Amino acid sequence: MHSPEEKEKELKHLLTAQPFDTPQGQDEVLKRRIRQAEAYVELENGIAVLSDFLHGKGHILSGSFGRLVGIAQSPVTIDSAFEDEIFGCIPPDDLLERHVMELHYYRFTQTLAPDRRKDYHGVCQVRFRLTDGSLVPVLHRTCYLECLPNGSVWLGLCLYTPCGNAEGQHPVPPQIIDYATGRTIPTDDYGRLGRQLLSPRETEVLALLAQGYSSKQIADRLCIATNTVHRHRQNILTALQVSNTAMAVQIAIRLNLI
Question: What pTM, to 2 d.p., does this model score?
Fold first, then answer.
């Protein structure tokens, strides 16, 4: 299985390595989106994170629920487009599920026109650990509010809302929903996109790594140079946005790449 850290690194790379143009009226657009996040927090007492991938900033806004997980100040601007403080409240298995869902969501939205992406939300259920040590179910939603004309994601919004599922009730499965129509996107529609991340040779190398083969053994088995295997391994880490092979294997299994 991959680790949340590897999945998180993959996600961060995809979003921060985009080619950015300077959006028109960016200050006013940003202020308007922050006001919308504030309205959500005021209404639902949850946590909203507005991620500015262009400037590498995050705006965290929280209601009463935020205080229960140790987020007292609101709003706060951080020097990261990712809510690491909030990620630390989520158990590793749940965090991995959240990152995998958003990777699918990112890949899927890349197939849409930029002005249509905000209609689609990635949704899953995670648990938050409160300051008293207890765990509560939380509905997580992510959407890309502002995309640039070249297709790059500028502003993304993550919402965390306590959902109070009763014990034994089935959690909300990871899914992508078109909020303009209420339609849930079939898994096959975006699952196949993940299989395009790696070349056939990279997939072959990763499958052998998953079986415990060393770079030299893979080189001998595939009749290629060891340096070529090293290059494939680096390409794999870059494509999956992870820092080591173990994480790459975990993510590849989760995305049905191997």
Answer: 0.72
